[in-house]
Amino acid sequence: MQRREFIAAVGTAAVIVAAGAPQAFAEMSGESMHPAKFKDLQESAGHCVSTGEDCLRHCFGMIAMKDTSMAACTDSAFQLVAACKALQALAAVNSPHTGHFAKVVEMICTDCQKECEKFPQYSECKSCAESCKACAAECKKVSA
User: Fold this and answer.
1) Where does the signal peptide begin and end (predicted)?
2) Burial status of residue 59 (CB atoms within 10 A of its CB: 0-12, 13-18, 19 or more)
3) Alpha carbons 39 and 21: distance in angstroms, whole number
4) 116 and 77 in contact (C-beta within 8 Å)?
5) In Å, how far from its chain's centre is CA 10?
6) Inter-residue contact 53 to 79 (CB < 8 Å)
7) Cα torsion angle, 96, 138, 91, 131, sign
8) Considering the entire predicted model, what is its pTM?
9) What digits encode the pLDDT tens for the residues 28-72?
10) In Å, how far from its chain's centre is CA 91?
């Protein structure tokens, strides 16, 4: 083995060892090095996305049947899904902007809840309203 090959081999070994060190440390301590600050908010926003998409599917079905009585609900559910997806992503990475954005999402959730509560006879709308209420409460806890 020549000197250059030896140095390259040692350098490669050092990189491999160094790359595994933080992971090994995290595994030894049993705790995450970067715990989720907004875990409840992230889960609540994710649930809102799920129920909001169910509500949207129902609204689109009604529109397809030429029933436009749920047009405002469709609009608010669409905004809810978009906003909660973004909030979920920010919360997942502990973004410093999560609190500021949560304030806006709280308003969107409240608006959607009001629209969905106009249609208690549909399970999709009822579930979405309940999810919006819970998410708005979580948003309020962290909003700046």
Assistant:
1) 1-26
2) buried
3) 27
4) yes
5) 43
6) no
7) negative
8) 0.76
9) 556 667 788 999 999 999 999 999 999 999 999 999 999 999 999
10) 6
Give residues with Cβ within 8 angstroms of 93, minimum separation 6.
none
- Per the CB < 8 A criterion, the answer to whether 85 and 49 are in contact is yes
Q: Are 61 and 124 in contact (CB under 8 A)?
A: no
- For 61-116, what is each residue's pLDDT tens digit? 999 999 999 999 999 999 999 999 999 999 999 999 999 999 999 999 999 999 99
Residue 76 in tokens = 């608010």
Task: Enter the DSSP assignment of 55.
Answer: H
Contact residues for 92 (Cβ-Cβ < 8 A; gap 6+): 36, 38, 42
